[in-house]
Amino acid sequence: MTATTGWVCQVCWKWNRPEDDPCFKCKSPRGLVDDAEVEAQRKVLEAKAAEPEPVPDIVVAVPVWVFRGYARVWLRGGIGLLGLLALMALGGVTDLIWFALTAGFSAALVVCGFLAGEVADGMRNREVWAFITGIALSVVAVIGSITAFSVFAPGLVNPAAVRWGSLIVFGGAGVAAAGGLFLLIRAGRRAAA
Fold first, then answer.
1. Strands 15-16 and 7-8
2. Long-range contacts of 78-85 (CB under 8 A, 24+ apart)
3. Tell me: the pLDDT tens digits for 42-57?
4. Stated pTM of the model
5. pLDDT for 28 beyond 60
6. Which residues pair with 146 in a beta bridge?
7. Closest alpha carbon to 16 in 7, 26, 28, 5
8. CB atoms within 10 A of CB 109
9. How far is the C-alpha of 184 from the C-alpha of 67, rounded, in Å?
């Protein structure tokens, strides 16, 4: 089935762009019109879906769950800091350094929130780049949280508690991403052998 803006795959019934020759979802060739060909392609897809996954779902689910949570928290924190920035401006704060620090911190939280959301989606699709980026985000989060407490709130909380808390929370996400990456690479090597 075709239309002016795209075509619908007869096997999985997903909408495709006009330039997509095989279906983006099921990789079926474009233009299957014979019902026997469509059924044969569906049986191939069902057989592929019945195969055991190379990496168990729980290995992927834990870091995905963690990074989705990070994405929400970081986005909301960044937007909240923009509100704080507006309150500082309306409240008469004239120190431009604090404006710049708050704006930079807010922008960094929003960017990291969007990135963590993309990482979670990539991990769910078992993409290697997502696990590597997740490890990097965890390292940056550990360093950033320790630095933020030491710069913005020195003496508010025991520095050792901040270090251990950051290491446990963000380091745990890094360990989960590293474990997922290890199992993903190991499963790829087994499949190649």
1. antiparallel
2. 78/106, 78/107, 78/108, 78/109, 78/110, 78/111, 78/113, 79/106, 79/110, 81/105, 81/106, 81/109, 82/106
3. 888 787 777 665 556 7
4. 0.62
5. yes
6. none
7. 7
8. 21
9. 18
